[in-house]
Design brief:
By secondary structure, the protein is an alpha+beta fold. The chain has one domain: Electron Transport, Fmn-binding Protein, Chain A (Pnp Oxidase, Chain A). The protein is built from four helices and nine strands; from the N terminus they run H-E-E-E-E-H-E-E-H-H-E-E-E. Strands 1, 2, 3, 4, 5, 6, 7, 8 and 9 form a nine-stranded antiparallel beta sheet that branches. The longest helix is centred in the N-terminal third of the chain and has 10 residues.
């Protein structure tokens, strides 16, 4: 199921991206720039609020959806992206090239995914799997009283 969820993120890389500022949630649309295993790579500016929020609290949640399928990931931000990965992200993303003169003017970070929730509302009963990425354990999630075990 991890592989299926990651492939869904590759194909649906524009995600809702949530952080916190003090005790308030903050959400915006972000684009996953690269995926390596269960690490998701992003880019932003040090001048943006999201950068300051991640410095104060690196906890992140993202959600991608298309049709009746959604994938939610919970994890932490790390600003330890290798130089060659930064260059690759910049070189392979026309949006960044349009907004920034050079790859070095951007802050790159990776989200180390800790858990994934995979929802598919198409079948009956709907499919809801919760995956602990560290252990690989999968559990069925609650989808409604009619389908409780």
């Amino acid at each position: 199921m991890i592989t299926q969820a990651i492939e869904f993120l590759r194909k649906n890389n524009e995600v809702s991206f949530a952080t916190c500022e003090a005790d308030k949630p903050k959400i915006r649309v972000f684009q996953i720039m690269k995926i390596e295993g269960t690490d998701l790579f992003f880019a932003t500016s040090a001048k943006k609020a999201v950068y300051k929020q991640l410095q104060a609290n690196p906890c992140i949640e993202i959600m991608a959806f298309k049709g009746k399928i959604s994938v939610k990931c919970v994890g932490r931000a790390f600003f330890d992206v290798k130089e060659e990965t930064k260059r690759w992200i910049y070189d392979n993303n026309p949006v960044l090239q349009r907004l920034y003169d050079d790859y070095s003017g951007i802050e790159y970070f990776r989200m180390e995914v800790e858990s994934i929730d995979y929802y598919d509302l198409q079948p009956t009963p709907p499919l809801f799997k919760h995956i602990d990425v560290a252990t690989g354990n999968e559990a069925d999630g609650f989808v409604g009283d009619k389908y409780s075990k």
